[in-house]
Amino acid sequence: MTTKNNHPNSVTVRVPATAANLGPGFDSIGIAVEMWNEVTVEHGPFEVVNAGAGAETIPTDDSNLVVVGARAVYTARGARFPDLKFHSVNEIPIARGLGSSSAAIVSGIVAGFALQGDGCDPSEALELAAAIEGHPDNVAPAILGGCQIGVKSSDRWITSEIPLPEDLHAVVLIPDYVGETSKARGILDDQVSREDAVFNIGRSALLANALATGRLELLRHATEDRLHQPARSGIYKGLNTIIKAALTGGAHGAFLSGAGPCVMAFATGQEYTVAYEMTEAARLHGIEASTRVLRPTSRGAYVVGSEQLR
Fold first, then answer.
1. What class does CATH assign to 10-162+297-303?
2. Which residue in 11, 21, 118, 284 is a FRET match for 248, CA 20 to 30 A apart?
């Protein structure tokens, strides 16, 4: 259905979950995985309805990040923001380090473009989303799919995709408690030593190379980090034990997903053994958790019934 000016009356957008950092790539590398939020936006009296994961904790006013994302598009175009109804069905758990906020922002942005009858330019979507989120590591793969490197050059963001092995799986441990991104960022040092900077620079390069060339045995070293995980292990009990358990179970590498508390491991076999070992390690620390075995997805956000944005 369309309105008289050929703008659609409603759109439905799907956006994947994302994991950021991947160990050493702090605020600059992220990957999209097969877990999806679906958002329908239509013209009508303002309303926000949430269903699915964490629905009871998500705002239903104009601070809702789907609304924020949609509004950003109209503001960028100098257009009046109309009354809209927002209905979200969320599979991505809230505040666990799987990009729930980025998914909400991106879904609003994509819907905002679509409701104006425009195609969504990924570069413009990235600029808007990163301006809201503050960094590109989740929003870039949420928009583009795949594993993305995002860096800022002058006043714009540049992305580059890291090719992934076809048989790569992501094993995700999802604790039953939420993380606080502001707290997880607030405990980080403002300055780091040259030694730690070099440690992470080298491993970020090794990570990209290992994934692109399929030399997955390097991931054990390439997912190590000194910039954020050591500090965050103080607020996420058992983090280091869970990472070690994943490696013992057969994972190639493991790391804190985003700001946590989820832990993600890369595997190309023995995925359910890895999941079991991670769950047992969490249990020994008194942490109840579930696990998911997911595939990376090369598809980023899209309007249902349409093609990929890029």
1. alpha beta
2. 21
